[in-house]
Queue: 3 jobs
Job 1
Amino acid sequence: MNQPLFGLDGFLVVGAILFVLGLFTALMKRTAVMILMGIELMLNAVNLNFVAFSAFFPNVNLHGQIFSLFVITIAAAEAAIGLGIVLTLQRNRSTILVEDIDLLKQ
Amino acid sequence: MADSGFVAAFLLITLVTLGGAMGVILSTDVIRSAFFLSASFLGISGYYFLLHADFIGAVQVMVYAGAVTVLILFAVMLTVEHRDSIWHRGAFHWVVTSLTSLALLAVLVFSLGGVAAWPTQTGPAPNNSTALIGKALLGPYLVPFEVVSLVLLVAMVGVIVLARKEVGDK
């Protein structure tokens, strides 16, 4: 990295760490709601990357910010539907632990 | 851009964001994890304001720290499992997840070293990003804008259908 630490590279490293923390959450937790929280962390990390690139490049354009706006919108819709699925799961199977949802297993 | 005020703000916001993410992982209570997640969202919003993306920062607070947090809390309140501890996972699970996460982090961070020099911004950051985003959404980005409002409508109807009480429910 040839830039000062808190230039673009700092934001990208923080975004990478946040993404990996979100991935760790999504992989280690047993509840479907916690896995959705990990997915939201990953989406936020990606948004941070987009907005950081948009802020640091010479021709000041806002494509990164507009893309992250759409990501926020779609992520909110996906969170709503995901939590609706979790509620339906709770109602039909009385559990939200993903390890108990194994009807398709051999 | 790297004067001491910027650096201090960056470090503080990093503390809040990554601390919130660590809290989501390490907390054993799902409701506490939801609040830590909300803190992380507010930290990300701080980054956006630091990068002169004021509209996106405000949207982040409204949508994520506002609506998505409340949505998650509603779902947590309506479900039965409130404890979710990572400390009760088996050793194999821990090893594989940690190795995968560290490998991904290494790839992401060390790929930054391959870039000789990022281009740096030559002009001042715009302070009217709301107006520029508005013009872009009704200009070049009109079709995605309309499509995404359709997506939101479909999502709303879908969640209402999914989550409503069936006839025989208590």
Note: Chain B touches chain A through 87 residues (CB under 8 Å).
Job 2
Amino acid sequence: MESRNLRVFVMVAVALGAVVLIAATELRLPGNHRGYEPVQPIAFSHRLHSGELKLDCQYCHFGAERSRHAGLPPATMCMNCHRVVTAAWDLVLAEEAAAKAAGRAPATLFSPELKKLYRALALDDHLKPDPSLAPQPIEWVRVHHLPDFVYFDHRPHVARGLACETCHGPVQSMERVRQESDLSMGWCVNCHRSYPALPSAPSAEHVSTDCSSCHF
Amino acid sequence: MNQHDQSPLEGDAAASSRRSFLKLAGFSFATAAVSGCSRGRIEKAIPYLVPAEEITPGRAYFVATTCGACSAGCGVLAKCRDGRPIKLEGNPAQPVNRGGLCAVGQAAVLSLYDAQRLDGPMRGGAPATWEAVDQDVRARLAAIKASGGRIVLLTGTLHGPSTRAAIDRFAQHFGNVRHVMYDALSVAAIALAHQRTHGVRVLPALHFDRARVIVSFAADFLATWISPVEFTADYALGRNPDASPPICSRHIQLESCFSLSGSRADQRIPLAPWQVVPVLERLCAAIAQRSGRACTAARAGVAAAGDPVDIEALADELWQARGHGLVVCGQNDVSAQVLVNRLNALLDNYGVTLDLTRASQQRLGNDAELHELQRAVSAGEVDLMIVQGQNPAYDLPDASWLDKVPTLIVCASTLDETAARAHLVCPEPHFLEAWDDGEPHQGVYTLTQPTLPSLRRARTLRESLARWIGDPQSDLELVKAAWRDVVHARVAAAEPFDAFFHRVQSDAFVVAPVQDAVLPALREDDAAPLAMAPPAAGEHGLVLYASSAMQDGRHAHNPWLQELPDPITKVVWDNYACVSPALASALCLATGDHVRITSPELKGALELPALVQPGQHDQVIAVALGYGRRGTDRFARIGPQWLQAEPTVAAGALVGVNAAPWIRAGELALGYHGRAVRVARTGRRSQLACTQDHHRLEVPEHLRPHGGEVRDAVRTTTLATWLSSPERALLREPERDGQLWPADHRRRGPHWGMVVDLNACTGCSACVIACQAENNVPVVGKDEVARHREMHWLRIDRYYQGDGASTTAVHQPMMCQHCGNAPCETVCPVLATVHSKDGLNQQVYNRCVGTRYCANNCPYKVRRFNWFDYPHTDQLQNMVLNPDVTVRSRGVMEKCSLCVQRIAEAKAEARRQGVPIKDGDIEPACQQSCPASAITFGDLDDPGSAAARKAASLRAYAVLGELNVAPSVRYLAQVANRDHKGSAAHAG
């Protein structure tokens, strides 16, 4: 009898100890990648584009409105601006001043990061297609990743008017994108429980927490 | 998972990652707990450099094209994701199939991703380049042209204007060219019979919807004959007891083996192949007598003793429905077809149920020309032969003549029996990656468009012929040129061609006006019909039939079709010799006993397992064609490999046995029926994997609850009862009140449910493959099926009806019934199966721990357990996986979800557009593919929805409703057009 009590005590103690350890050391459950901030092949700055230039998120991530995936913009979409903007504005101004002082035409400056974009599209220094180069897709590192048995759909969330920051955090202030929420099921469900199903009738039931809303 | 694959070839890691998730989960728990925020894998997201116009990553788009799995020419909408087709759906606008698509068509998408398809041409059995092959062929052709030699093109049915034009130009260029078409499942006798009776070589279009009486002599028009999807749709239209007034054709099937069409007949009469001509003769005489017209072909008064058919009754029925009857015959026998034509002419059916205006071109084969070709080749008169789309070394009774062709060029997609003998092999593309066109009915032009860039270095015959005459053009250019010449002028001459072609591309078909054909007068002077000799004493008649899944064998490398249970016998992965119970007891045979079939006319023997088939003629042995294809030994290890696993195919053997050598090579037509054979037991036994008894709904007598009511799982009534008192025709469910859930457990939103019309369902099994394709259902192999472990979410239960005189069957698609009071939900210890607010019984794979309590407690036996990780090692084949559905891993339960991914998609789209979901927006895969429109999905709470209206029908009932499980799937009872109420249905 005593040994059994002892065993139960030890097990409870170990369990409690594990909880304390996890709480104290910020150890996490598997799959929780909060704070994940991988280095990307091109040092694209969301702070600059989204924060300073105030580009709409859905200008580039246009899939969010019409597809399950928000998606990444095709390289040709970057070229909408970067056919003209090839380097940082202050460097371009400095070059223009220097050229004016030297009495020559200003040279076209290329930022080293944008050169990677042009290389991917197989463009030469005049941004013309270079037949000797092969186009190479840009392999971005995915930041927000859900397990394969979860089918998250951006469409209803965007249609409901949810701000991107609600889940993705203050991307406009991030130089490199970081996973802000833990994207756990509890985190999803907490929000679903507190949102009314219909915006017009806040007293009605909350949005669906059926398993098959996300798992199928 | 790479979210935005650029090319389908870049691979999709999804399958392996999903499967390995649970496996890794345990390990990663430990790892993650130690390493904190480490990531197991770095996921790449690779966007397009230049976006494709129609592709939004994550969204499906549809390419309208035409199915090339057979020559029927059904329209399909190929559902594509990220640049690759993942599912084929019928095109509702297309006039041939009108939305349905058969099992073979559904499965064709898997063949696209077959790793064994040829990649690049071959010369002398070794890989070669296209340049080398072209040079070689041109040199050989030039030499033949110079010497005045003869060139032959041997193909299957080709009705496309562009291919015909290419062949014509090829023939003009080389002069001495003959084009011979033949069909492996030949119906050439029909056209030949019309030549004799009407003076025109034509295959009429058949309208089963306009027929009030259908008499079919062994024509399996609902499964394999000419254009089954088209005929099934028509047939279902002609049998609608809910219409006002109710329409219900009367279908009498006279056949020797049990076909799918026979199973649906109102009256099914066993009739041996050698009895067909005498019966037709007497029927002709009887009809002629009623019409007062002479019929020289019919010799009256040849009634044999022990007549199997009541000719007078049959004649009365046909005569009463004259002008709206239809007699068809599946026996490829000119004498029989001539008599059928006379019958239809005497009954004035031409112009109503048989239409020559839009005559069918779906089978253009000419067996007489094939016979002549074999003679010419054997005599050394042919110098070069190009074979395309057919496999004569496999599907003709004798292939030795092929070796006498000095140069044999074969255009095939795999190294099949014929290609293996060829001097030059030119790979053919799959129809989903090539341009093509067709004209299945006169004036109905179809277009086939590529859905992805070719996965193989393959080329169509059309393009090859253009190159070999020194006029290289792309496939698209050739198709466009033919459409400009042939179609454009007929359809829309006023419209600019480019606009016209663009419009056609979005529909993939166009219908040209045709002039009404004038039916030539019936010719009376004809030779006396030749009746087949009955087998001598001690001999039996061999009938070679096409099975629903294998057809002529061209799809034998498709594992979905190999594992599709035969609609009648429910056997997978094999062919077998069907014998009647009486014959089986006479020969002391049981199912699985091997028999040896021999014939004095032939060397060799056919040795295969026997299967006892009720309803079959006692003197007939039936064997399916299409098995024993070269290379099917690849499936030996298709299932999960484990300790007790047995191979699907025995060492050195193939899937089934080829029965084609037993076809009779007649001068006029290939004969599949009635060869006299001897049958003997060999003493060997093997197990046939048969699914019928795996998931029985019947409770054995001794286990039935005391006093508990037991009702038939399938219900039938007769048309007479239905017309006189529909209320009494069927037992209505008493409303039950016992609810499992308390009042606070209320449902919200729609109540998704489904209604299956057993009167429309023909059991064709298109839904089974549609479900498999949509829901990533794995193939498990013969051994696992034999262990009751097949994974199909939707099965079709077959219930025999009637007695020996007229055995028919009812087919009941059975899938998860999404019970309101679901027995599975209450026993799951981990809440992995729970009810959703909109009435779905949800299965949550990531919660399931595999106790299998739910499957044990399911009265419908529709839950499937993943005993293993089913192989997903073929990366190319994995491209067919639906990215919207989880690939389940070992140890979890799964079952029909009512295509919840389609519901979710429709909901998301509706929210995006701010509109409610309309009835009909959501179509589960099974409903979409059903040629007979037997399945209706919808909101059962919305009284206006099609499903709710059908569920309110007097025919509606719930299977096992007495258990008060409140299923969301309802069945509509079958209304048979027969005199007496069929005896109670029973499984078996």
Note: Residues 16 and 125 of chain A are 63 Å apart (CA to CA).
Job 3
Amino acid sequence: MNTQDLGGKLLPILLSGARRNSGEELLKLGPDRAHSLLRALSLTGQSLRFKRPPVPAEFAVEHWPRDDRRIVPDRLRRPILRLLDRSTDDTARAVALTFEKQRLRPHPFDLPLLDGFVRRYADRLGATAEFWVQRETPAQQARGYFEADVLTAENWTESSIRPRVQFLKELRKQDPASARNLLIRSWSSENPDNRVHLLSTFQIGLSADDHQFLESIQKDRAPRVRAIVHRLLAALSGTAGDNAALNACMERIQPSKTGLLKKRAALKLELPANVKEHDTNRWIHEQFSTVTLEQLAHACEMSGRKLVDAAQKDDNLLFALALIASREKRFDVLDAITEELPDAWGRMSELNLEDDLQRDHDETTAWAAVMLKPRKWIPASPFPAWSWLHHQVEGPLPVGVMREILASKAWTEQLEPETKGGSELVQVICALCPPELRASIRAQLAPLETDRKDKGWMLLEILDELESVQ
Amino acid sequence: MAGEPRRRSAPSCAVDFVPVAAGQTRGAYRTGERMQGTLVFYPSARPLRALIKELNSPAQESDSEFTLGDGDLLTAYSEHEHALAAIPWLSVWPLAFRDARLRRNGKNFYLCSAANDELALPLMSSQADTTLPLLAVERFSGFGLWDGYACRLCLAQTPLGRWVAE
């Protein structure tokens, strides 16, 4: 009896319990029935072990995208895995930003181990990472993975939102009409987040030619889009048009005179009685979201700079002005505001502000330089504001600002031996630290306990290594 | 662990006199480390279990490729069949092979020869996520453990470098 007989003849008998078949072939295997059965079972079972697994009728065809980015060097793979294991989001963001800047991507074999990191920062890690994140998405919902050095009018819709915003911004500077037409064509297929970011580029080169398109999308179903449309239309109408939001704000702003010898104008923002203290920032943000600096200054009959002087004694009005000036990139006015309200950035961090893709690197640097006045800090800034700041700046702070931070009491107090705490603050400060000052911060961190400084030190080393990759 | 009991390199399972692991490491040695020593194999129709008789050099990390023999996946599987014929109670058998690739049917992954689909060994479902990046590799040499139902891929040497199972 061979294996085919075992499989073809004996196996059915054994499976059916020999009820339908007398099993004569089975009984030949031993001196008696019991031995025959045992032998049949063992031989048949063993013969099945030689049966090769069936080959599926077809296999999937894999379509991994082409990814021109360099893979991170092998020597850095394990340190990066160790760093990102139980690190803060600030550390992960710093690593992702450096990957993007250096045009690097994680090693494909590390993608399963870095799943959370890759999911969060896929748009910064290259086409392979984006493919990895979408691998379980149905084909009709998956976005194409496309990363090109140069976007054009033909391929601009295929990339992720960040490069598209940059492309549209540049096009708005050169040819606002073409940029507008491109956006009109793709508008209906964009999701709300993309509409917000792309529409915000209309701040550049805004003109009466944009009016018709903006009017047509005034009733967009996304509230954030409607807010931007109202703001842009308000900017177009300038001081001439009627802005209901401005009127409402002016009802709340109380003018007066101050000074003994020389009277000067003073303004105060009166909050409604039902606005609680913890809601103040949110209320101010909502009230002033569609008001421009030009309109406010015109309504108060003074220049933007004079507005700041008049609001000197009122932190709430200063904060409102800071929001507007930050949004309109009026860094001169913002500089004056933060001289009086150095904690404006701390108050901003409590709001759920959108990722601002409109600021390029130079504008972000200028914004950070005027927002942060470490010399003027009195209380220690709360930890969450540092994280928010890193999120806004998307990279290290300017050297001058960081130098002041490292010398500030808010930071040096954290380095005292008796100060207890986790490693989160150290990690975010290391993430914000520019390369020129890494040696200084390493020296400052040296006396700290290992568990407080370990991740921060690792981050500095890995950033140094990544930035040196040729 | 690869040793040289006789004239050719062969996989072995070191069962005794292996240095005790300390701390959070899973074992005393990491994949890729090399050392020189002498193994003594338990007698068997297909010797696999071994004791470490002596170590002549400490374990050192090495990036050089493993020596995995010259056979493809079908050759490795045939060796398993010969071993099974000699040892009917055989459970897990090591497969060392060249020129293989990973393929997918639905959610199931299969280890196949790169040249053809004559043999398709199902991969353990628990490895689906970690082996997914290997789908992009056209051919690799590697090492796995076959238990008669599913293969546990332990190592793949690819143009992108070494993949090691966690």
Note: The helical segments of chain B are 73-86, 128-131.
